[in-house]
User: What shape does this take?
Amino acid sequence: MLGINFDQVFVLLKHWLLGYSPAAIQPAVSILLTIVPILLVFPVLFALTTVLERKGLGRIQNRYGPNRVGFYGILQPMADALKSLTKEDIVPASADHTVHFLAPLVLLAVAFLPYAVLPIGRNMIAANLDAGVLFFFAIGAISELSVFMAGWSSRNKYSLLGAMRAVAQMISYEVPLLLSSVAVIMAAGSLSTVEIVEKQAGFSGIFPHWYVLTPWGFAGFILFMIAATAETNRSPFDLPEGESEIIAGYYIEYSGFKFALFFLGEYLGMFAISGLGITLFLGGWSAPLPFLTWIPSWIWFFAKLLGLIIGFIWVRGTLPRLRMDQLMNFAWKFMLPMALVVVVSAGAWRFLPQGLTRWLVSTAFIAVAYLLLARGVETRNKIAKRTYRFAE
Amino acid sequence: MMSATFFILAAVTLIGACAAMMLRGLVHCALALAVAFAGLGTLYLNLGAQFLGLAQLLVYVGAIAVLIVFVILLTRGGDSDSPALSPTALPIAGVLVATAIFAILAWAVFHSVAIHSPGLPAPQATIRQLGTTLMADYVLPLEVIGLMLTAALIGAAIVAMKEKQDPQ
Amino acid sequence: MTALAGCLLVSSMLFAVGLAGALTRRNTILVLVGIELMLNAANLNFVAFWRFGPHAGEATGMIFVLFSIGVAAAEAAVGLALILAVYRHAKTTDLSQLTGRPQ
Assistant: This one.
């Protein structure tokens, strides 16, 4: 437009800055120039999301959100940051001090790592790993240990209970998450996030080649987002940290800055998994319509990310919290079979010739499985005779 | 020949393993074990085995370490104050046996061709090749391991299940 | 000392640590932890030979370690389930009490 390629402006900026540094330290400077923007942008996004969430939840619940601090409450994160930095850091006397101190650090380290494999724009990825999606899931699995460390080190029954529930929930929902991404990996033929996005970058007529616009992709996307909500302990799956149930679960005994670090870690996890959902199903940085490709790729990525965040906030304000056994039943008895059916449907899509047949076959697989499972799960929950269970 | 990264990763792994076997509190041992597994996973990544390192992180740290932690909590392991070391045999005997085995292995390494062989270029290890090899040459072990994992899952669930109390 | 020798030494040390722990610790779960460490040491050996050994690049090394990880996961699950079942029966995971030897 103005002779500047807005799409590649950050890549060009990085190369220009690299040109000014001496050749001996160029690898280190290159690494710094790639990592520091990630470390700056996503916490700022976190700050904006906290105020967006509180205003959004407030409006859904028919009240104003925070509106005192800045223009319509926009400076609320500043106030929150000041408060959490100046609060006294109380550690219980009987807590395990080393593990208690390390838990938020481990969580934060593990929360920042998955951003390395998310393609934020064309040619804008920190580490183009051959097995990018697997890296993402491996790092996500490590975060369960930090949740457990936080809950156990506080030597508090409620916090341990919250931690165990959180770990059980995260492990259960990892399986549908992984299976729905297996469907995408099968269709794209690669584990590398860059290649998955490039396979979705074309257009046929007016419709993009995003995987969400295929029957198995649509079902897979819904399963992925539900499992993502459960993985990051967001409502309606936030029993382990529910304020009204278990008094904030595994981070009861954390105050001040460490609590803020947990909060940051949770939101960063939410952004990362939304980013992966965008990469796998929504076409990453590619535009939705062919005449909109002049808008830079990174703007599309952040627009989609904002859309998914608004979806998360909307679901939080609308749905009630699930009980622990309902949660586990949902994961193992409904989502796991549905995810397997999505994989089969994706296979059918890949190997049938293009045309109406493969649409019908794919949709038939998913629709039949959904009807059978939904009806089957419903008939199991008949009201039974009341039984009593005593503590053992 | 060995880079500083390798030394740091090896040190982290060995310190984690020693801590896992020497600490008093059971949960501390389990967390140190998780550190050792993570160090090993990163060592595999350092050696160029990308899929393997990530699979090690996913399976060992994400699943087996968490499983060990759960079982420690379910068996109330952290409460007892009995001595940590086994009294059935002198604990020093176990350490001596382990040191002897390490000495033999180290002698074998130092007197083998491993010391003198030159470094080879890194082998090509794309995921695609690994997948093709798995499905073409090793498809029978793949299916058998699927069956075995299913059997292990069902067996573990049945063994660990509470027995039904007969209503009096 | 080449890189291969370094990896083999690390794997031998890991094996020795796992063996020492499995032989001396009193709790059943820690014996299982020692066994897992020994399995991992053997895996590291395989990966080192895959990378530096004479037939570098043949997928056999990687495939073996992949199956070894799978088998170790199944073995850990069944072993821990057995420990849970024994705990429910004997109310302890202490090896000296389980084997009935005098203190």
Summary: Chain C is about 80% helix and 0% strand.
